[in-house]
Amino acid sequence: MSTPKKEFKQSLGLLDSTMIVIGSMIGSGIFIVSADIARTVGSPGMLLIVWIITGFITLTAALSYGELAGMMPHAGGQYVYLREAYNPLIGFLYGWTVFTVIQTGTIAAVGVAFAKFTAVVFPWFSEQHILFTLLGFHISAAQLLAIASIVVLTAINLTGIKEGKVVQNIFTFAKTFALIAVIFLGIFIARNAEALSANFSHFWDANWTAVKDGSIITITPLAGWNLIAAIGVAMVGSLFSSDAWNNITFTAGEVINPKKNIPLSLAIGTGIVTLLYLLANIAYIVVLPVVGNPAAQDVLGRGIQFATSDRVGTATVSVIFGETAAVGMAILIMISTFGCNNGLILAGARVYYAMAKDKLFFSKAGELNSHAVPSWALIVQAVWASLLCLSGSYGDLLDYVIFAVLIFYILTVGGIFILRKKQPNAERPYKAIGYPVIPALYIGLATLICAILLIYKPTFTWPGLGIVATGVPVYFIWNFFTQKS
């Protein structure tokens, strides 16, 4: 008697899908990265410009992906789009990079952020609390907590898609309403006359502030190409904070009416997050001066640029609630990062499942367990992400991830042009808005950002490009042994 074939369960409705988009996007970044952006561009106007450009890029890409999602509502999402638009090699390079750095690196970075903010409430989990040394690596309590959070969330998702979506919905609703509360408090309750005067009298005065060991080294006025370059470099943080919206495409096999609900969830989810992020930064600049002094003893003196440990969200709320804000915001960000990682873990394994079905990943990753989830893919993802938690800081992981992400976003949006020619008669329930102008504009802007990062952040972007390139020999070696077996 043959064993019945296990298949994905279509359990994700429009609300669930939108919660995956929103929940995967909102992590810790919105509460942290504005400090580094402020140091890089140095003015309220430019801080908002960075977030506006990021929002435009994110929305443009998401609306373009809607066309591809409607055409190919299959598990694996973006991997499938690249395979069909180009060839199996390009699809594999994406899947390879998702596994080696994009998805697992993001999971690790968010896990590290979860641990960092847990340490505010429970100092034992501090990054400075070294527990032991292994093979020359100093292992901290924070790193072990980051790994533990990944293991717990993976275990939850091994029990089924319904359990994973419940966790996702609860945590996403909680952190979305909490972020709205921070915005409301900042804009309507905590507006500060000193901050407003400082910010609006120098609204467009852009400067790049270089810092070393907590002290200002140089302050460079920005204009022309230097201003463009600074905006491009500053966008690493904002793009990372706005990333992972595409994760819903990975779960297409489990979405009810995916041709309709995936494009809609992409548009609704990215639209909501983009608006919230812009409003959050408006709240920051009406409460805190953008320009600050790292030696200042108070929140206003340090400003957004030098908020303690870059915790801009905490600094904003502390204007109202004082030092107790640190604990409250830490708990909020713990909720936010925990929920964010649930969405990333849930979705990522579906890419490896699709690759395994194409015989481009370990065959067991293409199997579903008794709960209709790719258990082996989830476990392998957790193991590698946990190892990455030991590899570097939040900022290092962020730099590796964003460059690789942008490369494949550019290729995927470019795939719309290719598929319009290769498959002109394919069903397209949704078409990319503003085609061909808006998708082409996205490609141009994203390519410019990649070029800037290669020039100004070579330490991490070139290795990121190298990780993509290593997939080429792996692809041919994998195919060679697959054909022999």
Report what the structure shows.
The structure is a single chain. The chain has 485 residues and is mainly α. It has a single domain, classed as Amino acid/polyamine transporter I, CATH 1.20.1740.10. It is built from 19 helices and 4 strands. The protein has helices at residues 14-25, 29-32, 34-41, 44-71, 78-85, 88-121, 141-158, 161-189, 193-201, 224-241, 247-250, 258-287, 299-302, 312-321, 324-357, 375-389, 394-422, 437-456, 458-484, and strands spanning 130-134, 137-140, 207-212, 215-221. A two-stranded antiparallel sheet has the order 1-2. Strands 3-4 form a two-stranded antiparallel sheet. α6 (88-121) packs across α16 (375-389), α7 packs antiparallel against α16 (375-389) and α8 (161-189) packs across α14 (312-321). The longest helix has 34 residues, at 88-121. It is globular, with a radius of gyration of 22 Å. The two termini are 27 Å apart. The mean pLDDT is 90.
